[in-house]
Design goal:
The complex is a heterodimer. By secondary structure, chain A is α+β, with helices and mostly antiparallel strands. Chain A contains seven helices and seven strands, in the order H-H-E-H-E-E-H-E-E-H-H-E-H-E. Chain B is α+β, with helices and mostly antiparallel strands. Chain B is elongated. The chains are: A alpha+beta, B alpha+beta.
């Protein structure tokens, strides 16, 4: 602080008309007006509260094994990709800022995986749960049991633990008008994203408590041998499967007070990995089988 | 968690079966690559069977994060989980108080226990599922032949050759027969070296390491040996060594292997092994 500003501030002294009171250090007693939750006087981010067994298993054993299993040796450098002409002339000022894909499409299905390296060994990024509740279109309060259930399953809240990217349980709304039963903005489902410690906890409860106790579950269905390897799902690096409503009651978080949930919902589980390209979903399946998720043929 | 002894449920491999019925012990043709002998080495890994013991820093860190999350989380919705007047609620409240006292370093209150709080969770359940001790007998006696030793670490199999003088300890090695792929050779030779009572799984078909050693004698038709290492996991079983080839075996961590094998061998194999 320079001396000029100091003298300035001393000449414009603010005189408080309120009586001076000594305040005790109320670190966690001040509460947010909106949420009424205690707000600490500094930005606090809550990280892992315990060691995750499956995360350690991945780093100890799975990561090395998956690198060896999925390695594809490239003895020569990759040839230059075919230069396909773009839809619009990039020099044309009328079409300059348009989305300019190659003629014939983005060819997402033909894109190869990046060269194998220790940095891009397949790993689990996040797990997403999604539940479609068609009755919610008629009455929004039909979403509440699903929201409660997803909150119990995931433990995620909006901005929970100071993590601003965590969105918690979100309502899925219609994007476009289809078939007269959906309009843009109409709530019709629930989804939640889990990352980090909560993701590993969910995965371990799924594998240890739910899947073994499910009747008539032999495994996640593998795609048919004749299935094309260039479909959007095959190059996505995402493995998805669904659980029936009865499976929801097998999760310990819900089993402890099943009566509090008025309705059980079936839902989809999406395991999202870092692989993208031809053969990405196969690698994702190899990763998940390392966590003891069974796969079965039709 | 004690190591499971598997009864040999895996079928005996074709090559050895055929050999049982051969009139003469005609050895199958060994593969070579022109001027070099071809061999495979097996890095047989016993993966960790116990979760890691947290260090004092990790314990303090996790306790701190637990305190933060308890202080900043929503209040516990009692009405959602307990019906009014449920005895389980009182037990839960007591347990929660104990947990919070421990976390926040508070002195536990010395009030007389309320006689109405009935222990709802039965004692039999706790007795039925008593966990095994983390330190096995093998840890007490430092038995390096045991698969139960050092449950948190990755262990690797080393075998001792009777002939070699200074550096007898090495990973199991074997010849590759004609018409055999690397992973098939690995599976076959592990059952030959370690006996039929061992369950193993070869990690893929790709080798994880490679060494080339020049031939020592001048009379040999080969100028060197190419050795390809493959990774295997041992899942269950007990070793029964073939005494013609190897005399002793040990299951060692990476750091113990450094102290056991020769310096050149260590430089060749160190990068294939897990540090922890």
């Amino acid at each position: 602080m320079s001396t000029s500003t100091q003298s300035e501030s001393s000449s414009i002294k603010a005189v408080s008309l309120l009586p001076r009171t000594t305040r005790k250090h109320t670190a966690l007693k001040s509460r947010s007006r909106r949420t009424l939750l205690p707000t600490p006087p500094c930005n606090v981010v809550i990280r892992d509260t315990h060691a995750s067994r499956l995360a350690d298993h991945y780093h100890n054993t799975l990561k090395d094994d998956l690198m060896y299993l999925t390695y594809h040796h490239e003895s020569k450098p990759r040839p230059e990709p075919r230069q396909i002409r773009l839809t619009y002339d990039p020099e044309n000022p009328y079409t300059k800022n348009r989305k300019n894909l190659p003629v014939g499409g983005s060819r997402l299905g033909k894109k190869p995986l990046p060269p194998d390296a220790p940095e891009n060994v397949i790993r689990l990024e996040r797990i997403q749960l999604h539940c479609m509740v068609k009755e919610a279109i008629a009455n929004r309060s039909n979403l509440l049991p699903a929201i409660m259930a997803f909150r119990a399953l995931s433990g995620e809240t909006q901005g929970g633990g100071g993590r601003h990217t965590r969105e918690g349980v979100q309502v899925v709304r219609g994007k476009s008008t289809e078939g007269g039963w959906i309009r843009p903005g109409l709530p019709c489902g629930v989804k939640v994203d889990m990352k980090g410690e909560k993701m590993w906890t969910f995965l371990s409860t799924l594998v240890d408590f739910v899947l073994p106790r499910m009747k008539e579950f032999s495994g996640v269905l593998l795609p048919a041998p004749s299935a094309s390897p260039n479909t959007p799902s095959a190059v996505s690096g995402v493995v998805s499967f669904g659980l029936p409503p009865a499976a929801m009651a097998l999760f310990p978080q819900i089993e402890v007070n099943v009566d509090a949930y008025t309705r059980m919902h079936g839902f989809h589980i999406h395991f999202i990995t870092n692989a993208q390209g031809v053969g990405a979903q196969a690698r994702a399946r190899a990763l998940l089988s390392g966590f003891q998720i069974p796969f079965a043929r039709r | 968690m004690l190591w499971r002894v598997s009864t040999s449920s895996t079928p005996v491999c074709k090559a050895t079966f055929a050999r049982c019925f051969a009139t003469e012990t005609a050895l199958p043709a060994v593969r070579h690559a022109g001027t070099h002998r071809l061999k495979i080495g097996m890095v047989v890994n016993r993966a960790p069977i116990l979760t890691r013991t947290p260090t004092s820093f990790e314990k303090a860190y996790y306790a701190y994060q637990n305190r933060l999350s308890r202080a900043l989380s929503n209040p516990f919705p009692r009405d959602f989980y307990f019906k009014p007047g449920e005895p389980l609620e009182n037990q839960f409240a007591e347990e929660e108080k104990k947990r919070e006292d421990w976390l926040f370093h508070r002195k536990p209150s010395k009030k007389a226990k309320d006689e109405d709080t009935v222990q709802v969770v039965s004692q039999d359940f706790a007795e039925e599922f008593e966990p095994e001790k983390r330190r096995a007998k093998a840890d007490l006696y430092n038995n390096k032949r045991s698969l139960n030793r050092l449950g948190e670490r990755n262990l690797y199999l080393l075998l001792k050759k009777p002939s070699k003088g200074t550096s007898p300890w090495a990973f199991p090695e074997a010849e590759i027969y004609k018409g055999e792929r690397l992973h098939e050779a690995a599976k076959r030779s592990v059952s030959q070296h370690c006996g039929a009572n061992v369950d193993t799984w070869v990690v893929g078909r790709h080798p994880i390491g490679f060494t080339e050693t020049p031939e020592s004698g001048t009379a040999s038709e080969f100028i060197g040996t190419k050795l390809f290492f493959l990774k295997l996991h041992i899942l269950a079983g007990q070793m029964h060594l073939n005494p013609d080839q190897y005399t002793e075996f040990q299951w060692l961590t990476k750091q113990e292997i450094e102290d056991t094998v020769s310096k050149e061998y260590w430089e060749a194999v160190r990068d294939m092994l897990s540090d922890f």
